[in-house]
Amino acid sequence: MARQNKNLQNHTSLALVYFVLAAGLGCVLRCFRVFEIPVTYKFIVHAHSHVALLGWVYLALTTLLYKLYLSRAEVHKKYRNIFWFTQLTIVGMLLTFPFQGYAVFSIIFSTLFLFASYWFAWFFFKNVPFEYKQKHSLKCAKIAIVYLLLSSLGPWALGSIMNTLGVTSIWYRLAIYFYLHFIYNGWMIMALVAVFLYILDMHNISLSDKGFKAFFLKLNLGIVLSFFLSTLFTQPSEFYYILGGVGAFLQLWAFYDLYTFMRNEWALIERPFSKFFIITIKTVGVLGGIKMFLQLLSAIPYFANMATTYLDFTVGYLHLTFLGVVTISLFLFLDYFKLLILNKKLFLVYVFGFLLTELLIFFKAIVAWQSATLFSEYYFILAVTSLLVLVAVLGILIHNCRLKAILK
Q1: What is the distance between the alpha carbons of residues 120 and 29, in angstroms, rounded to a whole number?
Q2: CB–CB of 156/175 below 8 Å?
Q3: Is 201 exposed, middle or buried (0-12, 13-18, 19+ CB in 10 A)?
Q4: How buried is residue 12: exposed, middle or buried, by Cβ count under 10 Å (0-12/13-18/19+)?
Q5: Quick one: angle between helices 58-69 and 136-151, nearest 10?
C-alpha cells in the first residue's frame, strides 16, 4: 500500500509538471502583445488548452479517483499500462500542437487520448470494490466519467464537420462547445463533488438518501440542459434560452441545497478539518457561486450576445472555472489525501495571481463593451500577473519534490 501511495504521489507530481508547462504556454500567449515571438499564436492556444485540461486536470482527477476507489482493489499493475499509455498521448500532443496545430500527428495523439480515457472508464467501472457501490460519492464519480465519455462525441464530430461543412460552420463551434461544456461542467465538477462527498463521508457526514437524490437529479439535469447556453451564439428561438436558463437555475439550486446542508451540519463539519481546509472550501464555494451566477445571467439574450461579442467575458469565465473552482479544489484535495505536499505561501501566491489575471481579463472585456480605451501598460501588466501563476505552480512542484526526497 505504501508503494502504491508513492506511485500516486509521483503521478501527482507529473500532473504538476503538465500544469507548469500549460502555465508557461499561457505566459507565452500573454506576451504576444508585448514582445515579438516567432511562433503561431493559434498553435500555442491549442497546446496550452490540451496540456491544461488533459495533462493537469485529467491526470490529477484520475489519480484522486484511483486513490479513493481503487487503491484497495490491488489493480495497480494493470493500471500502470493505462497510465503510461495516457502519458504517451499527452506528451505527443505537447510535442505536436505547438508546431503544427490541428494536423495529422496532433490529431492522432488526440484520438489516442480518447481511447486512453475509454480504457480508464472501463477499468474504473470494472474494478471498484463492492463496498463502495452504495456510496453517494461513487454515484457522482461514475456520472462524472459518463460525462467524460459523452464529451468525446465533440472531437469525433469535428473530423466529419471539417471535411463536409468546414471550420466556418456553426456546427464546428457547436462540437467544440459540446466538448468543453461536458468536460468543465460535467466531468470536472462532478468528479470534484464526488471527492468532496467522499471526504465528508469519511467523517460520517452525509446527505440523507432523499436529499442526495434531489441534489443529484437537479445537478445532472442542470448540467445537461445548460449545454443549450453554449448554442446561444447562433441566436436560436427563445425556447433554447429557456432550456439553458432552467439548466443554470437547477445547478444553482442543487448547490444551494448542498450549502444549506453544510450550514445545518456546520458544527460537525468544522470540527475534523483544518482552518486551511475550511477557508479554502469556502473560497471555492464563493468562486463556484460566481461561476453559476454568470452562467445563469448568460441565459438572458442581452448578456448572451455580450458574451458572444466580447470574447474576453467567455475567456474570463472559463479561467474562473478552470484556474479557480477546479484547480483550487484539486490543490486542496490532493493535499488532504497527502498526494501533494502543498506549500501554503506559494498557494496564496497562486490565488493572488489568479485573482489579478481574472480582474484584468474582465476589465478588458468591460472596456471593450463600453467602447473605452485600455491603458497603455495593460498587456505588460497582464503578462506579469500571469507569471505569478507560473512561478507559484513551479514553486509548488519544486517544494513538493524536495520534501518527498527528504522524506524518502
Answers
A1: 32
A2: no
A3: middle
A4: buried
A5: 150
Whole-number Å distance between alpha carbons of 157 and 174: 10
Collapsing DSSP states into helix, strand and coil, what is residue 167?
Answer: coil
State the cell numbers at 52. 491544461
Residue range 146-205, pLDDT digits in tens: 999 999 999 999 888 888 887 788 999 999 999 999 999 999 999 999 999 999 999 999
What are 332-365's pLDDT values in tens digits?
A: 999 999 999 999 999 999 999 999 999 999 999 9
As a whole number of angstroms, the distance between CA 282 and CA 251 comes to 18
The pTM score is 0.95
Length of the chain equals 408
> In what helix (H) or strand (E) does residue 70 lie, and over which residues does it extend?
none
In angstroms, the CA 162 to CA 158 distance is 6
Q: Quickly count: other Cβ atoms within 10 Å of residue 48's Cβ.
A: 21
Query: Which residue has cell 470534484?
Result: 192
Helices and strands counted in the chain (H then E):
18, 0
What per-residue string of b and e applies to 241-257 under the rule 16 or more CB within 10 Å gives b?
Answer: bebbbbbbbbbbbbbeb
Tell how far CA 178 is from the center of its chain: 15
Grid coordinates of 169: 460552420
- Measure the CA–CA gap between 37 and 399, rounded to whole angstroms: 31
